[in-house]
Amino acid sequence: LAGFLGFLAVVSLANALVSSVRRRKHDLAILKALGFTRRQVSAAVAWQATALVVVALAVGLPLGAIGGVWLWSVFADQLGIATDSLVPVAALALAIPLGIVAGNAAASVPSWAAGRIKPSETLRTE
Q1: For the whole model, what pTM was predicted?
Q2: Residues 58/49/7/16 CA torsion (nearest 10 deg)
Q3: In angstroms, rounded to a whole number, what is the distance separating the alpha carbons of residues 94 and 100?
Q4: CA nearest 85: which of 101, 63, 69?
Q5: 20 to 30 Å CA-CA from 57: which of 66, 67, 73, 120?
Q6: E strand spans, the chain
Q7: Exposure pattern of 36-66 as b/e (b: 16+ CB <10 Å)?
Q8: Which of the 8 DSSP states describes residue 81?
Q9: Which of 56, 68, 49, 52 is nearest to 95 (CA)?
Q10: pLDDT one-digit tens code per residue, 62-92
């Protein structure tokens, strides 16, 4: 279940980045006209992905752990069994670098596309 939800998160991030690059094509073309290289434009999109992943992990991991412990205690109390629960801190700590790597992997195609934007063609439409 965690792997499937992680896959959905990566696909959602890739979709958001593709939409962002399409929507901000004009802004990216201005950056290139001002002197940004392909690599710098691609890096800007990769940093956007990293920022989204870091914020999602900073909010999601603590809330998920707290919510999971609380829901288990409510469920276990109704069944009359022990309400002890352990939070897998090592797995949560491993999710941070894996999430950042997966987010940057999802950003590879949108950042490549952003680097290939041609300012002359994009800005000519004004």
Answers
A1: 0.82
A2: 110
A3: 10
A4: 69
A5: 73
A6: none
A7: beeeebbbbbbebbeebbeeebeeebeeeee
A8: S
A9: 56
A10: 999 999 999 999 998 888 888 888 888 999 9
Query: What is the identity of the amino acid at 75?
Result: F
pLDDT by residue, tens only, the chain of 126 residues: 888 988 999 999 999 999 999 999 999 999 999 999 999 999 999 999 999 999 999 999 999 999 999 999 999 888 888 888 888 899 999 999 999 999 999 999 999 999 999 998 888 875
Tokens for 46, please give them: 């990769």
Q: Which helix (H) or strand (E) holds 98?
A: helix 89-106
Amino acid letter, residue 52: L
Structure tokens at 65: 């752990």
